[in-house]
Write a structure and sequence with these properties.
This protein is mainly α. It is built from 9 helices and no strands. The protein has helices spanning 3-37, 44-73, 78-118, 131-164, 170-183, 187-192, 196-216, 222-237, 244-267. The two termini are 31 Å apart. Keywords: Membrane, Transmembrane, Transmembrane helix.
């Protein structure tokens, strides 16, 4: 590939990546805010039908950009991807929540922050009313939301940005994809008001941590998919009285997995070599 052709390819991939970000965020927010305004956002039935359809549209569009590469790379370093995803997710999530609370505290003051925490907010957009609905949402999280959102934001958005820079400048690009992931959840501001700022920081942190693991393992989506699905599923279990104890137990297990993964990351210094395919410099070996 000559220099001129390579530059044109890089620019094309970069433009496609940014276009995909805009398309995803606009479409997702348009759907979510429309459902909220129509009073349908809390319907589990609509969510179970609409979510897979929305993800199918996004995956179909994204597949034309980078689908083949995702299928080739998603199981790369799969075993290491699991513990890196738990560990980096924990670091980024905790850090982002702390930063979000501190910034919000500076904006509204200690007294204002205390009143925000005590305020009774509207229910979440998806609120299960029965055990069957709760279990359906858990299944949706594990089988649809986790795989789809990781494929879209980490595999397609982040992967295309990394390809355009030959997998350099990964931290800056990770911030971009994590922010795009957070902006796809803007409806939290509608529900939580100023406290939605903390929720947005949490989601951006989540996206950054999973993107971190994705990069370190050369494009593996196994860890990010499992962690994302597990996190969402355990959160839904906390919203229904019957499954509340199980949700609490799973959150404890989640925390223990984060701690054990961080210990493993500290004790084990692994190098990951990308394949020699286009966009993966063979000499590029990031450290975990």
């Amino acid at each position: 590939m000559n220099l001129k052709h390579a530059s044109s390819y890089t620019l094309g991939v970069l433009q496609a990546g940014y276009s995909l970000i805009i398309f995803i965020d606009v479409l997702v927010n348009a759907v979510n805010f429309s459902l909220i305004k129509l009073g349908l956002a809390g319907s589990v039935g609509i969510t179970l039908v609409l979510a897979p359809l929305l993800y199918a549209v996004l995956l179909g569009v994204g597949y034309t950009l980078r689908g083949k590469r995702i299928l080739e790379d998603y199981k790369r370093n799969a075993r290491d991807s699991l513990y890196l995803a738990w560990g980096y997710f924990g670091i980024a999530l905790f850090t982002s929540i702390v930063i979000g609370v501190i910034i919000l505290g500076f904006i509204v003051g200690a007294e204002g922050l205390n009143s925000l925490l005590r305020y009774e907010y509207p229910s979440t957009p998806i609120q299960a009313q029965t055990l069957t609905q709760t279990l359906a949402l858990v299944a949706l999280s594990l089988l649809v939301v986790g795989p789809a959102e990781e494929t879209i934001f980490r595999g397609m958005v982040y992967g295309s940005l990394l390809d355009s820079f030959e997998w350099r400048n990964w931290r800056r690009l990770n911030i971009i994809q994590a922010t795009a992931f957070g902006l796809a959840h803007l409806y939290y501001f509608y529900l939580l008001g100023p406290l939605g700022f903390v929720a947005l920081a949490e989601i951006i942190g989540m996206g950054y941590g999973l993107g971190w693991a994705y990069y370190k393992c050369g494009g593996s989506l196994v860890g990010p998919i499992v962690v994302h699905g597990f996190w969402d599923a355990s959160s839904f279990l906390l919203l229904y009285p019957t499954t509340l104890p199980l949700g609490g137990l799973l959150k404890l297990v989640f925390f223990l997995l984060i701690v054990s993964s961080l210990i493993k990351i500290v004790l084990r210094n692994r190098h990951y070599r990308f394949s020699a395919q286009l966009g993966f410099p063979p000499s590029n070996a990031p450290q975990a």
